[in-house]
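Lab notebook, bench 4. Still working through the backlog of constructs that have no structural model yet. Next entry is a single chain of 163 residues. Request: give me the structure tokens for it.
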Amino acid sequence: MSGAGAAFEAATGDGPPLPGPGADPAAAERRANEVRVAYEGLLQIRRLTNIGGGDPRAVPAPWERNQPVRAVALALEAAGIPPSALDAEGQRVRTGYRAGPGERPGQVRVEWLGPPGSGAAQEEDTALAGCARALERLGWEALLYRGPRRRRHLEVEPIPAPG
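Model written out:
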């Protein structure tokens, strides 16, 4: 979470827990406002840079293509999908999405993870489908794959830019 003077960082699911239900209401509201402002800024960048015709909000901007993990994480957080989180020892303490680099440049891997015994594995089909819908509305192609131990994940890439 960003503090006074700190740059906003979208939650990738590998950071500390963000304020949420049951947290300090002021901190939760501050984070929600930060996410809203960052997302509105992203849409403004799209309007200014995607001039090839059609809805500029439906195609990722060059900034997003250069920083896909940050862009995907922002899109998911702005859609109200909860990020996973780690404690100070690196143990997973919250169930939610985790966005990280994919196997190829420009690709993002989105997983649904949680603490041991959280039931994240049973939720992943439904949760990842929700992640895919949120991303596809914003011009990201999200394909569902089954990986090791039969766990599913999304491989996410920006749709090709028009032109």
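Notes after review: The chain has a mean pLDDT of 89. Residues 3 and 45 are 24 Å apart (CA to CA). Flag for follow-up if needed.
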